């Protein structure tokens, strides 16, 4: 890689309620993506907001453990944001948030090879206006990836959110969204077609345990989920996103964007993303794989495919 990755978005503390017992973990979708990239050995800068409090200290230490550099986009005068995550019997998580997003001090983008934005940070105003302006002003050679990761209670109504999503998609080469995101944004069922039409080169649609489908111009590739015993789904989609972006960067896929992708390219990056997500689902909390763990997981998937 010739440069670093910049991730922009929210940091928070996940208060996880499991069977009546509460534990606290560092979280936030973009934070999880930045942390996942760092654990995969990708030089990463994370532009975010958190308070100068005990929770903020925990966030800074968590990111530092993965070698992620932090750029603060606020003064740290508000308390660190939080989300209560309730874990269901099947391991699924539902959330309640206490979060504001200002983005009053945009990060430096010189020396950045790729920018990832998503979730509350990309869609919740007033900060989202600054994030969108930053993305739309990036030089053409900077790769942009985007994951809307919709939290309906914290983002604008569906029509306004859809407009923002499509503006990001017009600049993003890679868009990842869950089937739930797609259904909320596009009840008509044409999410993938609309985002490709707006300008995205790759759209990855995830369906949890049913795997994912990667779409590009004239190409559709199904990628199975990595078989695993689910502990919880916290951070699974974010691990998928960090794996997807790492695979795109390390495989040199940006040079192929713009209609020159082959099915094998989509299958390869989708497999990396699926294995990263599967490893994360198999343990409690948002703990994405290291580069070594991901490599072992990919070898295991390859061995299984060869045996079949």
Automatic annotation (TrEMBL):
GO MF: kinase activity
The protein's Enzyme Commission number: 2.7.1.-
Keyword ATP-binding: yes
Record-given protein name: Carbohydrate kinase
Pfam family membership, one: PfkB
PANTHER family xref list: HEXOKINASE FAMILY MEMBER, PSEUDOURIDINE KINASE-RELATED
The entry's keywords: ATP-binding, Kinase, Nucleotide-binding, Transferase
SUPFAM superfamilies referenced in this protein's UniProt entry, alphabetically: Ribokinase-like
UniProt keyword annotation of Transport present: no
Record InterPro entries: Carboh/pur_kinase_PfkB_CS, PfkB_Carbo_kinase, PfkB_dom, Ribokinase-like
Family as reported in the entry's similarity comment: Belongs to the carbohydrate kinase PfkB family.
Domain Carbohydrate kinase PfkB: 5-288
């Amino acid at each position: 890689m010739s440069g670093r990755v910049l991730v922009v978005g929210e940091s928070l503390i996940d208060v996880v309620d499991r069977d009546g017992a509460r534990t606290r973990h560092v979280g936030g979708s973009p934070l999880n993506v930045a942390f996942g990239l760092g654990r995969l050995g990708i030089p990463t800068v994370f532009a975010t907001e958190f308070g100068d409090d005990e929770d903020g200290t925990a966030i800074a230490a968590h990111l530092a453990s993965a070698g992620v550099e932090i750029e603060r986009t606020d003064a740290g005068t508000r308390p660190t944001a939080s989300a209560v995550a309730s874990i269901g019997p099947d391991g699924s998580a539902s959330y309640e948030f206490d979060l504001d997003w200002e983005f009053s001090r945009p990060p430096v983008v010189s020396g950045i090879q790729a920018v990832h934005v998503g979730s509350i940070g990309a869609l919740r105003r007033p900060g989202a206006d600054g994030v969108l302006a930053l993305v739309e002003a990036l030089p053409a050679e900077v790769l942009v990836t985007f994951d809307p990761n919709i939290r309906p209670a914290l983002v604008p109504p569906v029509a306004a959110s859809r407009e923002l999503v499509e503006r990001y998609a017009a600049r993003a080469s890679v868009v990842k969204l869950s089937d739930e995101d797609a259904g909320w944004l596009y009840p008509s069922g044409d999410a993938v077609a609309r985002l490709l039409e707006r300008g995205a080169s790759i759209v990855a649609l995830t369906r949890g345990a049913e795997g994912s489908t990667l779409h590009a111009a004239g190409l559709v590739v199904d990628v199975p989920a990595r078989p695993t015993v689910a502990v919880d789904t916290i951070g699974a989609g974010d691990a998928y996103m960090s794996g997807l972006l790492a695979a795109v960067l390390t495989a040199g896929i940006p040079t192929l964007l713009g209609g020159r992708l082959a099915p094998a390219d989509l299958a390869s990056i989708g497999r990396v993303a699926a294995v990263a997500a599967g490893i994360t689902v198999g343990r409690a909390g948002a703990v994405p794989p290291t580069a070594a763990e991901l490599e072992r997981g990919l070898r295991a998937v390859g061995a299984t495919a060869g045996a079949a």
